[in-house]
Amino acid sequence: MLNDAFHYRTDSLYADSVRVNSILQSVGTPVYIYSLKRILTNYYTIRDAFFGAGIHAHVHYSAKANANLAILRTLIAAGAQIDAVSGGEIYRALQAGASPKSLVFAGVGKTVSELRYAMEQGVGWINGENIEEFSLIDHLAGTLGIRQQVSLRLNPNIAAKTLPHIATGHGGAKFGLSADAISRILSRAADYPHLIFDGIHVHIGSQLHDVTETVQAVQLARDLAAEFPIIQTLDIGGGIPVAYSPGETLPDVRDFAEALAPVVAGYQVLLEPGRRIVADAGILVTEVQYIKHQGDESFVIVDAGMTELIRPMLYNAHHEVTPVERKPGSILHAQLVGPVCESTDVFAQRIALQGVERGDALALLTAGAYGMVMASNYNARPRPPEVVIHPNGETWSVARRRETWADLTALEE
Ligand code: LLP
To answer: Is the alpha carbon torsion for 285, 287, 293, 295 positive or negative?
Structure first.
């Protein structure tokens, strides 16, 4: 959706105060463009909403949403901490200047080498998700001669009303531990001499639409924590939603903060928002290669596809499409499709574009989260560059260059 960062001046799309077309002239398409100013505003909105509700929360930006170093550096410099789900994300966060103590390391299947790396670096919390994992972390901490602070991830058995693909809190999901399993581990805390059991972690899904469900899940975590005084921290996950379509009504960050405040009172609180910080601060710009009429259908074929932004194909997710330069002309109703050799490579089944022609640039909006991080090299397509508009809103740079064909073969014999 259009917003303060991506807006029209007359008929030209701007990213903050930079004309998008001027970026395309030197960088080409497809390209991701991010507004660092918007990212900072989104971060401050979350931090301040919780602070305003009386919760002094640590905001651990969930790097899985967009782990570009320029974004991580900007957020870390502004005081954000990081939620990492792999050794690679820990590495990126450290490269971007995160202090190891400020990192949360979560994930359902952490490997021995990832755990050892995390502990050697000194990450603040490891969120464990199964009994074997706690024994392993305890053993590794023992061999490293440290005591590792951990949280236990609760599976609250709540089916969040979100897209089925991104719900994680129902009992049948692979995530987390039941309340009973957590109680069993905590009542035998002495069996894990190298662990400091500090927190209960709960995350029921992404793009949460219902504050009540979130409160219920956090309440279960809090009730469990209350039985074990060693637990001082509640990590209440991510999931703060973002509107992808005009007219979509969603709870505001403040609604979550105010509803959660009484539940978490007395605990240190960690948040793990990803999408709400970066989604509406990014667009993917693509160029129309061909317009084709076949049968009763029209197709606008662009130079980005499921390799650049897979959300529409994977989740049936909606991204608004808007021209980089608006112009007059007749309206074409068409399918917006990519170039990849898969019939599922469709961004939208039916969009209306005015005066569209070969060579026009189109922007897919709200693409800053789970866009580039999920991009692939399928069909030997180099991944696109990422451009950042600096927080001054006026200047920009290429934060990650476009991959080349040489990059595609660089790792092979
Ligand atoms: N914490 C945990 C434990 C998570 O699993 C996630 C997201 C987050 C935090 C951040 O959630 P957020 O604030 O971004 O909603 N690729 C999907 C989304 C997958 C989310 C995975 N976990 C998409 O494109 O919609």
So the answer is: negative
Torsion from C-alpha of 187, 190, 196, 199, nearest 10 degrees: 0
**Rounded to the nearest whole angstrom, what is the distance from the C-alpha of residue 209 to the centroid of ligand 1?**
14
Q: Which residues surround ligand 1 with Cβ inside 6 Å?
A: 62, 64-65, 83, 106, 166, 168, 203, 206-207, 237-240, 272-276, 311, 315, 370
Is-catalytic flag, 341? Answer: yes
Task: Identify the active-site residue in 26, 295, 328, 341.
Answer: 341
Q: What is the end-to-end Cα distance of the chain in Å, rounded? A: 44
Q: 367-406, pLDDT tens digit by residue? A: 999 999 999 999 999 999 999 999 999 999 999 999 999 9
For ligand 1, the distance from its centroid to the CA atom of residue 11, given in whole angstroms, is 35
pTM of the model: 0.97
Phi-psi region of 72 (alpha: psi -120 to 50; beta: other; left: phi over 0): alpha
Q: From the CB of residue 263, how many other CB atoms can be counted at a distance below 10 Å?
A: 21
